[in-house]
């Protein structure tokens, strides 16, 4: 067989396939999907309308420059249009950033455990991943990340809040870190959960970008805005980086449906952020309950909580599924549970209550 197989790049051998969150059971008891950090609210009627209207002309290619969306984003964030780039989800944009900066022999630094797409897209680029363990409190160890910088470092991801732990880094420590990063190394602040942050000590990456040409901010419509299925995210970065993102974009990657939905969502932002507020309320309810039950849970500023269950991770996930909620296990490490509908959260809390707190 191997003689007839086309030759594939050797780096692919080490790349794990991205594991999507398990879907909610069809037929089985697991009716709530708390495994992918999705927004449990269905699309707003107005957003749905604009998508339906756009669907009438999907025989045409989309607007490749995303003109309307760029205008909205430029206005909303107070950044020049040429500092913006869109992509197929912010994961798509992250992959483009790697294509633009990193190749064989280069190093890419990120915390671990963090977003599971980082090792995948880093290896695809051919660059070497440099994984810096989280602190014992499951927070980015920014001092250790700065210490890990070499003259081969090309890109550093800072996931704030971090997926899957929900933990954040604060303004002072992040500024101190950025001061230590050489000007020619790109720092990518992945702020996929920005809208869920209530801790005022967490800086807005867009403010940091304004004063630092080597900082790029990633945002997405997938989480707070509820457009995960439409694939649209964006970067805010200074011109050389934004230009590189336009060069590395898959032509027509962002569909017209996604563009229209994103525009309509920005215009309905008050309502959508109201929903985010309700989810943040649910998050407090879940966190308070878990702590009252005796769990040690890191402070989360995202739409999920992290239980470090170690060897009991898969067992806990199975018990959850039996009870009717699908969670996201990372074998040997822990379980990430998305804050979803109150009913789903209730089931999760009930499982957690009855589960032994120590291994
Ligand atoms: C969900 C998520 C994203 C966004 O993914 P999309 O491709 O925009 O759907 C990016 N970064 C992190 C850390 C995430 O958890």
UniProtKB/TrEMBL annotation:
Top-rank EC class of the record's enzyme? transferase
- EC number of this enzyme: 2.6.1.57
State the needed cofactors, names only: pyridoxal 5'-phosphate
- Positions of post-translational N6-(pyridoxal phosphate)lysine modification: 223
The reaction(s) annotated as catalysed by this protein in its Swiss-Prot or TrEMBL entry are: an aromatic L-alpha-amino acid + 2-oxoglutarate = an aromatic oxo-acid + L-glutamate
Q: Which UniProt keywords apply?
A: Aminotransferase, Pyridoxal phosphate, Transferase
Domain Aminotransferase class I/classII large, by residue range, is 33-347
- What SUPFAM superfamilies would the database entry show? PLP-dependent transferases (SSF53383)
Which InterPro entries does the UniProt entry name for this protein? Aminotrans_II_pyridoxalP_BS, Aminotransferase_I/II_large, ArAT, HisP_aminotrans, HistidinolP_aminotransfase, PyrdxlP-dep_Trfase, PyrdxlP-dep_Trfase_major, PyrdxlP-dep_Trfase_small
Q: What does this protein do?
A: Aminotransferase that catalyzes the conversion of aromatic amino acids and 2-oxoglutarate into corresponding aromatic oxo acids and L-glutamate.
Similarity-based family: Belongs to the class-II pyridoxal-phosphate-dependent aminotransferase family.
| Subunit text | Homodimer.
Q: Which PANTHER family match?
A: HISTIDINOL-PHOSPHATE AMINOTRANSFERASE, HISTIDINOL-PHOSPHATE AMINOTRANSFERASE 2
What is this protein called in UniProt?
Aromatic amino acid aminotransferase
